[in-house]
Amino acid sequence: MYFLETLVRLHRAGEGEPYTGLKPAGVVEPAVVEADKALESGSVENLVKLITEASSKGLRERFNKAKEARKNADQSVEAGREFVEAYVQFTHYVERFILTLLLRQSIIIAHPRLQPKNIINTIKMWMHNKSLKSDAVKDRRASD
User: Fold this and answer.
1) Among 51, 98, 103, 127, which residue's Cβ finds the most Cβ atoms within 10 Å?
2) What's the rounded Cα separation, in Å, for the pair 97 and 11?
3) Which ranges of 111-144 does DSSP label H, i.e. alpha helix?
4) Where are the domains of the chain?
5) What's the distance, CA 63 to chain centroid?
6) Buried b / exposed e along 89-113 (16+ C-beta atoms within 10 A)
């Protein structure tokens, strides 16, 4: 069993995905089922709809929570903390979403010479660029 777990861990790491344990035979993620259906039918529309709705729902929920919390953030320390928590949840969701896309792109670009350092360098470059943009926004706000 240890050999199979290690094999799956390495495979998942190569995909840029976390190891979530071994799954029973026959268990397939809904998105993979839709991907198979798309290939069989010759149309990707249902798959696009599934992915778009799932990502849109998560983004909108976190955005709306942060937007509502922001309205009262100045009312009390507790309200300010609620806004910060909602803001962090919202921005982390966006970061994870973008990071996942970048990671997937780096795997596609790096394949067949997939090396972990390629993925790590891509992530570092993205984080560095994000940091530079964040610093520029802070500088702009400070000068206002």
Assistant:
1) 103
2) 21
3) 116-143
4) 28-143
5) 15
6) ebeebeeeeebeebbeebbeebeee
